[in-house]
Amino acid sequence: MSFVFAAPEALVAAAGDLATIGSTVGAANAAAAANTTSLLAAGADEVSAAIAALFGAHGQAYQVLSGQAAAFHQQFVQALTAGGTSYAAADYAAATPLQPLLDAINAPFVAATGRPLIGNGANGAPGTGANGGAGGWLIGNGGAGGSGTSSTTADGGKGGSGGAAGLFGSGGAGGPAATPRPPAKPAGPAERAGMPCWSAPAVPAAPAGARQMPAARPAGPAGPAATPACSSALPATVAPAG
């Protein structure tokens, strides 16, 4: 004997898709009815009229057949929708009265051991490295361990352990380790502020008897002095008397 699992939401979605297909096919048949059921004869002779009548009869028969198919399609969509609704109602009716009974059975075991008799363990929160909760003593799967916390170490934070399984069940999967964060980049040396220093070689003294340049024009009033970062003064040179 094979078991069949029904998903009510999938049945309702399939019924909606089928209804859309039926509407599209019906619109196409209605658009083609005028050109397939009332054909004009190609000529005034009897043969052309007979051919037009033959094709028109086929078009009318197709419209009758398509109407019957549309009615069957509509009934199928209604049955599928009703089936999905019935499955959903049955699931709700079966789960609602059993939950209080299950809570009453698990209450003494949770109070004594912190673990239910029947039920699955809770999963560890992501990014905490917490262990998964243990499943029920009799029936239940262990919860999955939480993923590791972010860390700057080479391996990252360690994931939590999976929860223990019950007598019938499977243990929870261990949480994955977190991806390590790259260490902070050290700050570079501070740049030296101020203007760059410049130095120039000393100018040799002019020989005796050399033609001297005319005296420079007197300078105007001095503006505010700038304070350079550093300077290199040139040595004074004195020309010998000629």
UniProtKB/TrEMBL annotation:
<feature type="compositionally biased region" description="Low complexity">
    <location>
        <begin position="187"/>
        <end position="229"/>
    </location>
</feature>
<feature type="domain" description="PE">
    <location>
        <begin position="4"/>
        <end position="93"/>
    </location>
</feature>
<feature type="compositionally biased region" description="Gly residues">
    <location>
        <begin position="156"/>
        <end position="175"/>
    </location>
</feature>
<dbReference type="InterPro" id="IPR038332">
    <property type="entry name" value="PPE_sf"/>
</dbReference>
<dbReference type="InterPro" id="IPR000084">
    <property type="entry name" value="PE-PGRS_N"/>
</dbReference>
<protein>
    <submittedName>
        <fullName>PE family protein</fullName>
    </submittedName>
</protein>
<dbReference type="Pfam" id="PF00934">
    <property type="entry name" value="PE"/>
</dbReference>
<dbReference type="Pfam" id="PF21526">
    <property type="entry name" value="PGRS"/>
</dbReference>
<feature type="region of interest" description="Disordered">
    <location>
        <begin position="145"/>
        <end position="242"/>
    </location>
</feature>
<dbReference type="InterPro" id="IPR048996">
    <property type="entry name" value="PGRS_rpt"/>
</dbReference>
